[in-house]
Specification:
This protein has 311 residues and is an alpha+beta fold. Helix content is 34%, strand content 36%. It folds into two domains: 136 residues, Nuclear Transport Factor 2, Chain: A, CATH 3.10.450.50; 145 residues, Nuclear Transport Factor 2, Chain: A, CATH 3.10.450.
Length: 311
């Protein structure tokens, strides 16, 4: 027991020294990885593709900010040499932050924040201004090198939107912002006034749907054309006025007023003026994927019998 009591403190001290040594080694490894990031900026700002690529393993995978995938140090050197010739010839890279996490004593993940000025991006490619790199680093032969690299352009984080994303739909290749939405609704209104029912259907996706009050959905452009034809046939002088468009919780709302005299086949000859609205959702093609129309059917039928003066 006396010997055991003497051995235990020695074991504890040895463990403490081992942990301290391990921690010291890890601190040195982290310092070495941070040195790589400083070297990344130095090589970039000299526009030295060879020196930059030397920070990577021979078989490294590199994905740049626009998703171009380069495989190996040789291809990275080749691509950067071309990039430094024009696009990044006057660019300056600044490393603004580095975090390191060790997966094993030989493998680490680093997230590297950066900013850049002076890049000249060609049309169609966003100008790199700030972002974050995700790096997998490997220690081999006592030296840390980047084995995998994913770069991402960054913007300040903002709360997720709670309203429909206007920009998720596109019209004519342009984002469906508020101005495009209003213009779309005005043209849709004109189509209803045209006595050309197919013009109304053209605003819907190929498999789009139009539902009127609690009726069955009219699915597809042919069915929507037939639905629009019914109103145009009943009201040869049909006028639809746009009362507005707005954004609700998860859809868009188009408000309208229908004006006309029911002089079509079997009509009553009475004037009708009824207001209502449609709830729109858009497809990725910028056309209406679904429209749910609502109006006061009882008032509509009353006007068909007695006219607007009989309300």
């Amino acid at each position: 027991m006396k010997n055991a009591r003497g051995v235990l403190p020695c074991v504890i001290v040895a463990m403490m020294l081992g942990c301290a040594s391990l921690r010291a080694d890890q601190l040195q490894d982290e310092a070495d990885i941070r040195t790589i990031q400083a070297g990344q900026a130095e090589a970039w700002n000299r526009h030295d593709a060879t020196a930059y690529a030397a920070l990577f393993t021979e078989t490294a995978d590199v994905v740049n900010v626009v998703g171009w995938w380069w495989k190996g140090r040789a291809e990275l050197t080749q691509k950067l040499t071309a990039a430094f010739a024009v696009m990044f010839r006057e660019s300056t890279l600044t490393i603004t932050g580095v975090t390191v996490r060790f997966l094993t004593p030989e493998i680490a993940v680093a997230h590297v924040m950066w900013s850049m000025v002076g890049a000249k991006a060609p049309p169609g490619i966003p100008e790199p201004r700030q972002g974050i790199q995700t790096q997998v680093l490997q220690r081999s032969g006592g030296r840390w090198l980047i084995a995998a690299f994913q770069n991402t352009n960054g913007i300040p984080e903002a709360p997720f939107p709670t309203a429909p994303l206007l920009g998720s739909a596109r019209e004519g290749g342009q984002p469906m912002d508020a101005a495009h939405l209003t213009a779309f609704a005005k043209r849709y209104t004109d189509a209803w006034c045209s006595q050309k029912p197919a013009s109304v259907a053209a605003f819907f996706a190929a498999n789009g749907s139009l539902t009127i009050n609690d009726g069955s959905p009219h699915v597809g452009r042919a069915a929507i054309t037939e639905a629009a034809l019914g109103f145009m046939r009943d009201f040869p002088d049909l006028v639809v006025e746009m009362d507005g468009v707005s954004i609700e919780s998860d859809h868009f709302v188009y408000r309208w007023t229908l004006i006309g005299k029911n002089t079509g086949p079997g009509g009553t000859g009475k004037s009708v003026r009824i207001s209502g609205y449609e709830e729109w959702t858009f497809g990725p093609d910028g056309l209406i994927a679904a429209s749910k129309g609502h109006f006061d059917a009882a008032d509509y039928n009353r006007q068909l019998g007695k006219g607007t003066e009989g309300k």
